Amino acid sequence: MTRTAPAREPATAGPAENPATDGTPARTSNGPAAAGTAAAGTAAGPRAGRREWAAFGVLVLPLLLVSMDVSVLYFAVPFIGGALHPSSTQQLWILDMYGFVLAGLLITMGALGDRIGRRKLLLIGAAAFGAASVLAAYSTSAVMLIGARALLGVGGATLMPSTLGLIRSLFKDEAQRAKAVTAWTGVMTGGIALGPVLSGVLLEHFWWGSVFLVNLPAMALLLVLGPLLLPETSTTKTRSTQTKRTQTKRTQTKSAQTKSTDREPFDIVSSLLSLAAILPTIYGIKELANNGLAVLPVVALVAGLAVGVVFVRRQYSHPGALLDMALFRSRAFSGALLMNTLAMVAMVGIAVFTTQYLEAVLGLSPLVGALWSLLPSVTVGGCAPLAAVLAKTLDRAVVLAIGFVVAAAGLGVMTQAQAHSGVWLILLGASLEAGGLVMVMSLVSTILLSAAPEERAGTAAALMESFTEFGGACGMALLGTIGAAVYRGDARTLLPAAITGTARQTAQQTLGGAESVAAQLPGAARAQVLDAAREAFVHGMHAAALGGAALMLLSALLAVTLLRRRPA
User: Fold this and answer.
1) Which of 96, 89, 86 is nearest to 141 (CA)?
2) Are residues 289 and 372 in the same domain?
3) Cα distances (Å, whole numbers) of residue 475 to 11, 462, 467, 485
4) Which long-range contacts (CB under 8 A, 24 or more apart) does 17-22 make?
């Protein structure tokens, strides 16, 4: 059956429905329209009031905690190890299970929220997230904690796309929506940065389970205030409203097709296919990045990509498919997804190096390193609103290009950091890099929501989050491989000749391996090994930063090419 977009009023027609502009608003005599604003600066709908902004505040708090759960276990791992005695494999799954399940279910939950209602799914997810948090906090075995982390991933997958989809429904005015999405992006990125710090503070005073129980007040608040403040949205409701607004024969035909689509049952097969495609793909990429070439990650990656092909083919042919593939025909939508993915490649790929640089090269404790790493968040907090302001007077493609160039400059600054240059140079580079990329991410989020019809907002948000996870995994693989190759090459020549055999092989693989070898040596030899390994690591970081900077400059060119507005 042919899938058709529902009719919309001319005053609220989204950019995805304007074929003359290839999915973007037209230029007018007043200059370029603001990104995320209607053409010529006119509002696309009624302005939100206090109730809507209060509802937005209710949405932001759980989003902060869900994003923090990605990184909150970094400090807790030693404490969990002492209490539950997990094996090395179980410890890895404790860390990774949440992110894997979250990524695997985002598309399914985004489509489900569009169908049954985003508020309903959000409240179900909040209850599940709270219950899973209690289960994780009081786990008595490693297996139990792994299972609880998986349930947390299920709950997180319902919360993240639902919050962004509800923003699309709360803020009809495009300018206000741009502000809300900017804040949403800042909260999400800030939560990931705050996770290790909160973990360190809690573990100073409480037992390891406290890092999970901190979720409960926010989820309780959401369950109480959500039904009072949040609107209910679903595909059926939105389409029914739109059908009543138009009387033309063409609209009536679309309405008949829409009702037929609504009768289609939820596509469970597509849901399973998306999970079977995303999980092994991300697992394979991460394992190849962390441990090098091996049979199992390669098989997982190939299998995931193969299932992904089957999933995409089903979306084209099945009448009740999870994704409306017509979304990808919009240059604005597809281009914004690509820009978001490229930004995450650089952000996650270089973060691996900056964290190790602070702790292993400069010798800072994990908590002190985490506190220092909050400094770039100050820049991030100002750059997201700056992008929205610039987009009011400049073409959004130009603003995206500026963000990518700023990120490239920050990565260039990182190439000047040395083993003994102190903390300020690396933090300056990280601030510029993070600030530029948050400009990009906040803007593409607004573009994505504006390019997608309102009844597909949850699916659009889920796609963005899925591509975010994919971009992060690719960043670890791409930049991590570059840095690791340079490290191994330099370590072969820089390590003292007295280090031979298995010890030399271990020290040549990673900086952590060199530290374990050095710990078994006397004072002078230990210092020589550490100095050589740290210098090799810094050279690897420089190479990864240069690779990331080149990618960011290419991304700036792509942004101008793909997303520049065309005259009507």
Assistant:
1) 86
2) no
3) 41, 20, 12, 15
4) 17/453, 18/568, 20/568, 21/565, 21/566, 21/567, 21/568, 22/330, 22/331, 22/332, 22/566
Cα separation values, 267 from 6, 315, 319, Å? 20, 10, 9
Asked if residue 413 and residue 358 are part of one domain, the reply reads yes
CA dihedral 331, 336, 341, 347 (to 10 degrees): 150
Same domain, 206 and 80: yes
Contact at 8 Å (CB) between 387 and 528? no
Residues 261, 258: Cα–Cα separation, whole Å: 5
- If 0-12 CB within 10 Å is exposed, 13-18 middle and 19+ buried, where does residue 525 land? middle
Residues 6+ away with beta carbon under 8 Å from 279: 100, 101, 103, 104, 304
Do residue 211 and residue 285 come from a single domain? no
The per-residue pLDDT for range 413-422, each reduced to its tens digit, is 999 998 888 8
Instruction: Determine, yes or no, domain membership for 161.
Output: yes
- Report CA-CA distances (Å) from 469 to 99, 345, 380, 473: 8, 9, 20, 6
Distances from the Cα of 447 to the Cαs of 93, 106, 196, 400, in angstroms? 35, 19, 31, 11
Top mean pLDDT of 12-26, 61-75, 488-502 is at 488-502
**Spatial CA neighbour of 63 closest among 210, 172, 164, 193:** 164
Rg (CA), the chain: 24
| 471-503 pLDDT tens trace | 877 887 788 888 888 988 888 888 888 778 888
Percentage with pLDDT > 90 across the chain: 11
Neighbours of 458 (CB within 10 A): 33
Pick from 2, 37, 30, 6: nearest CA to 389:
37
Q: Could you tell me if 335 and 382 lie in one domain?
A: yes
Give the SS3 label for residue 416: coil
Whole-angstrom CA distances from 270 to 51, 276, 466 are: 37, 10, 15
- Look at the alpha carbons of 315, 319, 322, 328 in this order and tell me if their dihedral is positive or negative: positive
Q: Is 28 helix (H, G, I), strand (E, B) or coil?
A: strand
Containing domain of residue 460, as a range? 330-568
Are residues 194 and 295 located together in one domain of the fold?
Answer: no
Q: In terms of Cα–Cα distance, which of 423, 413, 468 is closest to 185?
A: 468
Domain count, the chain: 3
User: Is 341 inside any structural domain?
Assistant: yes
Nearest Cα residue to 103 out of 462, 477, 485, 568: 462
pTM score? 0.72
276 and 341 fall within a common domain: no
d(CA 70, CA 153): 10
Which tokens in the block code for residue 169? Answer: 């429904």
> Is residue 258 a part of any domain in this protein?
no
Kindly report, residue by residue over 197-224, the tens digit of the pLDDT. Answer: 777 777 778 888 888 888 888 888 888 8
Domain boundary among 234, 259, 278: 234
One-letter-per-residue 3-state SS of 80-126: HHHHHCCCHHHHHHHHHHHHHHHHHHHHHHHHHHHHHCHHHHHHHHH
d(CA 426, CA 34): 34
Across the chain, which distance is largest between two alpha carbons, in Å? 86
| Relative orientation angle of helices 88-116 and 142-170, to the nearest 10 degrees | 30
